[in-house]
Amino acid sequence: MTAPLRIVLIGYGLVGARFVEELLPDVAAGRITLTVVGGEPVEAYNRVLVAEYAVGNTDLDAMLVGDRSAAESAGARVLLGVAATAIDRDAQVVRCSNGDELPYDRVVLATGARANTPTLDALDRPRRDPDSLRKHTATLVARDDALPGGITALRDLDDARRVLAAVRGRRRIVVLGAGVLGLELALAAAHAGAQVCVVHHGPIPMARNLDRGGGHVLRSALRRAGVTVVAHSRAEAVGYRTEPDGTRRFDLLVTADGKQLRGDLLVLSCGVSPRNELATLAGLRTATGVVVGPDLRSWTDPDVYAIGDCAQVVERTPETAGRRDLPGAPSGLVAPGWRQASWLAAALADEAAARADGDPVPGSRPALPAERDAIVMLKAEHVDVVAVGDVSADPWDDDALSPRRRVAQWADPEHLRYVKMVTEGGVLTGFACVGMPRTAAELTLLYDRGGELPADRSLLLRFDGPDDDPAADADAFAPDATVCWCNGVTVAAIEASHACGNATVECVGRDTRAGTGCGGCRGRIAEILARAAEADGALTA
């Protein structure tokens, strides 16, 4: 009998948990032996919801996405609270912090990303070059940067608990960075009663996703929500105070223009970097992330794969092979990582089945589809932001440079509403929408389908008008309309789930996965459930 395919998965987060789930039928059938190495001592959870956890809006049970008991019942081995410290590619063994040596035929890296520590005076930022990694493996590999008291990032449950203590104590929180995660935390903490200040060096918040108009409306919305916004201020240093017990804690953030912003907790929200230390130590090609081809296989070793936030997908060509700096970067979003996990699990399952049948070469699978620009959503109480694509173009740009491009823009800063739509030949290629959730939902549907906008763009504004009746909009509730873009769940699937007795957003999520990714579709799921419940009531009346 042919030996099963031995797979070691390093990393057990959102993407790793999806990979495990997809492989379990083959593990149970004996075609694959699977060992999972998870650095945290808890079941896999939705890291996207850490900000909600940090302000007490959700609990750990609602965040869990893994099912260790199901994996172990199928025959997988799941090691939690254990770090992989080395990949010996010659011996084909993964070495772990608990002393285990795990033999493999294939290694899958799903190690995710770590929060960036900015360059600030009085804040150490460890180097992660190969020499430093070899010298300080125990403190640098599979570990976040050690931060002084009163300073934290927001990547895991321990970080969230530190923030939660500050929120419950109505402390002063300084958030450094104005990206989506930093703003979600700031708004949630302010809503919970904390004093919050957001500091960023650019002119507008969410500068990677919004244009100037959308950014200014968002800044006004933040201030009305009780968040102090300090723009055009580059952080330069941190200051500390000494507590009565002799410990040193964060006291103030100093900016290059001379501001001194005092606080009880500094939250670093300065982006993330892929965790590629293991790959670097193993001699694999790395750039921003672990360099893999479109088949998610390492350029260096055909037995090593990478998925999710640590994977940098670059097609190997004579031109790219000779470059020191490679194009692209990991997306940093959950939906692409899930698609990679599902595709790779299917590919490895095919390989295991062919191996069991004595065929050394499995049939080829369709290529992993190229990713489109991801839709970015800011999820907060009374502040709605949705954006996708390049919205830097202005309505007054020279048409001769892009003759098929058109830009429509509408702003109502007094009421915190703004929308900008960019089209090519009438087809929506990008938009930014602030404070107009129904218009954003309609634009998202059009973008997802590659549909054309109406010739009169102003017709779209009615969706957030006082006279709009969402029930009359058949398109948004059409059976094939996508609701959850992270998981590709349609209206029909949610209605079918409701018909089977799943009456809450959480129950639908467990049944269909809808709403378990970024969470931006949970409000729309609730609308569909409410419509379904009304229809049930009408039928029984």
Give your account of this protein's structure.
With 541 residues, this protein is an alpha/beta fold. The protein has four domains: 5-115 and 273-356, FAD/NAD(P)-binding domain; 141-270, FAD/NAD(P)-binding domain (3-Layer(bba) Sandwich), CATH 3.50.50; 384-468, FAD/NAD-linked reductase, C-terminal dimerisation domain (Enolase-like, domain 1); 474-540, Arc Repressor Mutant, subunit A, CATH 1.10.10. Helices cover 29% and strands 23% of the residues. The strands form eight sheets. A five-stranded parallel β-sheet has the order 3-2-1-7-19, covered by helices on one side. The longest helix is centred in the middle third of the chain and has 23 residues, at 334-356. The chain is globular.
Provide tags for this entry.
27 strands; Enolase-like, domain 1; FAD/NAD(P)-binding domain; 16 helices; 23% strand; 4 domains; 541 residues; alpha/beta; five-stranded parallel beta sheet; globular
What order do the helices and strands come in, and which of them pair?
Layout: E1 5-10, H1 14-28, E2 32-38, H2 50-54, H3 60-63, H4 68-74, E3 77-80, E4 84-88, E5 93-96, E6 101-103, E7 106-109, E8 113-115, H5 130-135, H6 137-140, E9 151-152, H7 157-168, E10 172-176, H8 180-191, E11 195-199, H9 212-224, E12 227-230, E13 235-242, E14 248-255, E15 260-262, E16 265-268, E17 272-274, H10 277-281, E18 290-292, E19 304-306, E20 311-313, H11 318-321, H12 334-356, E21 376-380, E22 383-388, E23 405-412, E24 417-424, E25 427-434, H13 437-449, E26 482-484, E27 489-490, H14 491-499, H15 505-512, H16 522-540
Helix pairs in contact: 1-4, 1-12, 14-16
